[in-house]
Amino acid sequence: DTEVTQTPKHLVMGMTNKKSLKCEQHMGHRAMYWYKQKAKKPPELMFVYSYEKLSINESVPSRFSPECPNSSLLNLHLHALQPEDSALYLCASSLENNSPLHFGNGTRLTVT
Amino acid sequence: GEDVEQSLFLSVREGDSSVINCTYTDSSSTYLYWYKQEPGAGLQLLTYIFSNMDMKQDQRLTVLLNKKDKHLSLRIADTQTGDSAIYFCAPRNSGGYQKVTFGTGTKLQVIP
């Protein structure tokens, strides 16, 4: 069982919808990450939060908006997505910036 | 950015050893991780090696690092059907943000 919990497991949304993905960890990790994974591809980094501050944005379109309300929670707010944004969205955390990543099971997002 | 390459597919018989290879380009990589991904799941950290080591053994897993050639391998002894999954090599660079870059992934098929 993973110690990083992501909800929902599956999400179907239209291009005009607004939705949020949620991620939670209680391991005391200080860095949290969002990755996007398309089918048969490796995960690609989107955002990194370190000590609740955004430290990396990999030139992600503004229709994806991350939020880190506290050290245990990470959200990804979605608005006006495109069908090509359909993918598995993975959250990860690490104790510090140079520690191994621990992943959740992901949210499978379909944009119709 | 860093390029991380793996062969796409490996098929082995149950009980044999599996060797998954990885080449990377950033010679300043500090930690090098191996992750396993089963269908529909997130990524599970299997093991990792620090760049000042050339070998690490962890039960059935052996990691070999050739820093000069920027080559990493993962050997799985006595491969079982439960080892069938996609395996990702993931070096962490030593830059300011210490990014983790995932390899292309190797699909391991274990034949009973």
Question: Characteristics of this structure?
Answer:
heterodimer, A: 112 residues, mainly beta, 4-stranded antiparallel sheet, 0% helix, 57% strand, B: 112 residues, 5-stranded antiparallel sheet, globular
Description:
The complex is a heterodimer of chains A (112) and B (112). Helices cover 0% and strands 57% of the residues of chain A. Chain A has no helices and eleven strands. The model of chain A has no long low-confidence stretch (mean pLDDT 94). In chain A, strands 2, 4, 5, 6, 9, 10 and 11 form a seven-stranded mixed sheet that branches. In chain A, strands 1-3-8-7 form a four-stranded antiparallel sheet, with no helix packed on it. Chain A is mostly beta strands and 112 residues long. Chain B is mostly beta strands and 112 residues long. Chain B is 0% helix and 54% strand. Chain B has no helices and ten strands. Chain B has a five-stranded antiparallel sheet with strand order 1-3-8-7-6, with no helix packed on it. In chain B, strand 4 and strand 5 form a beta hairpin. Chain B is globular, with a radius of gyration of 14 Å. Chain B starts with a strand and ends with a strand. The model of chain B has no long low-confidence stretch (mean pLDDT 93). The chains are: A mainly beta (112), B mainly beta (112). At the A-B interface, strand 5 and strand 10 of A face strand 4, strand 5 and strand 9 of B.
